[in-house]
């Protein structure tokens, strides 16, 4: 099984032999013996190339699970069963990556110093099935059957402006936004439609600044260029910022932790996944506000 898995992952007997520290004939014989034992063809020989068969593809997940179990047995036998090491990539949007992840990663570093963490900072949904990231922090429910999703909590967002902006423009009312400059997120009308649905008067909304980047958006708000939306964990903790439109309910949106099904067989990914789940959930201990707008979500998805 090790020979089969190494060959499937490297694409040739010679590369598999180098990976396992064996000879190419030995790898070839072991794969042939496995094919004979199972009575199937695992690889098609096309010239000098190997192409994994459909049966071989069907066996890959089980082979990886067996390989993971064998690796864990080896760790136990050598007294290194507690070691968690290797690279784990985490995809998150700008606000989460900048404001929520760092303290969690500090604690993770103390617990598993051999781990290497790559933070992929993007508002786009990383394709975990294609290996763009190991773990993703999303605000939407995962629909792909190959993914494992865990709902953590509903985060809350509110409107903020700098103290300088409030001193210059006063505290605006929801019913009159003629003198309010909003920091927009994109060129579409989605943000405008959302504001009008929340109770703002149509036709009185101004967006002199637009940026899709969450860090840049918040920086413009802090600079006093207008009113913006931020998670309350971020806005309430930022010195010099004032929460406005308090008559409106906070906006709630779900936080999902998502990983590929490899989560079940990779100890390092599981370790990081559990640490993120604990750390991101702790932010919500204060509980939801009495008045809030919620986006629908489902908690029953692949575990």
Structure in words:
- The protein is of the alpha/beta class and 303 residues long.
- The chain has 10 helices and 12 strands.
- It has helices at 2-10, 13-20, 24-38, 54-77, 94-111, 163-169, 190-198, 214-222, 232-235, 267-282; strands at 43-46, 49-52, 86-92, 115-121, 135-138, 147-162, 181-184, 206-210, 228-231, 241-244, 250-260, 292-294.
- Strands 3, 4, 5, 6, 9, 10, 11 and 12 form an 8-stranded mixed β-sheet that branches.
- Helix 2 crosses helix 3 (24-38).
Shape: elongated
Q: Helices and strands: which structural class?
A: alpha/beta
Mean pLDDT: 80
Radius of gyration: 25 Å
Specify the biggest β-sheet: 8 strands, mixed
Please count the helical segments.
10
Order of helices and strands: HHHEEHEHEEEHEHEHEHEEHE
Which regions are unreliable across 5 or more consecutive residues at pLDDT < 50?
Answer: 285-303
Query: Which range does the strand content fall in?
Result: 15-25%
N- to C-terminal separation? 29 Å
Helix content: 25-40%
Strand elements, count:
12
Summarize the structure.
This protein has helices at residues 2-10, 13-20, 24-38, 54-77, 94-111, 163-169, 190-198, 214-222, 232-235, 267-282, and strands at 43-46, 49-52, 86-92, 115-121, 135-138, 147-162, 181-184, 206-210, 228-231, 241-244, 250-260, 292-294.
Notable traits:
single chain; 303 residues; alpha/beta; eight-stranded mixed β-sheet; two-stranded antiparallel sheet; elongated
């Amino acid at each position: 099984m090790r020979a089969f898995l190494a060959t499937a992952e490297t694409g040739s007997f010679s590369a598999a032999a180098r990976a396992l520290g064996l000879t190419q004939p030995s790898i070839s014989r072991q794969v042939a013996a496995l094919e004979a034992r199972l009575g199937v063809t695992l690889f098609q020989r096309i010239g000098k190339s190997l192409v994994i068969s459909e049966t071989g593809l069907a066996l890959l997940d089980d082979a990886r699970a067996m390989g993971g179990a064998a690796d864990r047995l080896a760790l136990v036998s050598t007294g290194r069963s507690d070691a968690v090491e290797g690279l784990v990539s985490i995809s998150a949007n700008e606000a989460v990556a900048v404001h929520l992840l760092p303290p969690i990663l500090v604690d993770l570093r103390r617990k598993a110093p051999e781990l290497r963490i790559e933070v992929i900072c993007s508002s786009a949904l990383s394709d975990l099935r294609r290996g763009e990231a190991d773990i993703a922090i999303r605000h939407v429910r995962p629909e792909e059957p190959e993914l494992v999703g865990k709902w953590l909590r509903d985060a809350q967002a509110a409107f903020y402006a700098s103290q300088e902006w409030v001193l210059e423009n006063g505290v605006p009312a929801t019913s009159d936004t003629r003198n309010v400059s909003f920091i927009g997120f994109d060129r579409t009308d989605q943000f405008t439609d959302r504001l009008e649905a929340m109770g703002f008067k149509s036709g009185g909304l101004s967006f002199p600044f637009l940026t899709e980047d969450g860090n840049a958006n918040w920086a413009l708000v802090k600079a006093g260029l207008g009113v913006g939306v931020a998670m309350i964990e971020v806005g309430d903790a930022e010195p010099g910022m004032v929460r406005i439109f308090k008559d409106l309910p906070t906006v709630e949106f779900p936080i999902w932790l998502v990983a590929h099904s490899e989560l079940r067989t990779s100890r390092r990914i599981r370790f990081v996944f559990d640490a993120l789940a604990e750390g991101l959930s702790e932010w919500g201990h204060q509980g939801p506000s009495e008045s809030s707008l919620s986006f629908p979500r489902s908690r029953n998805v692949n575990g």
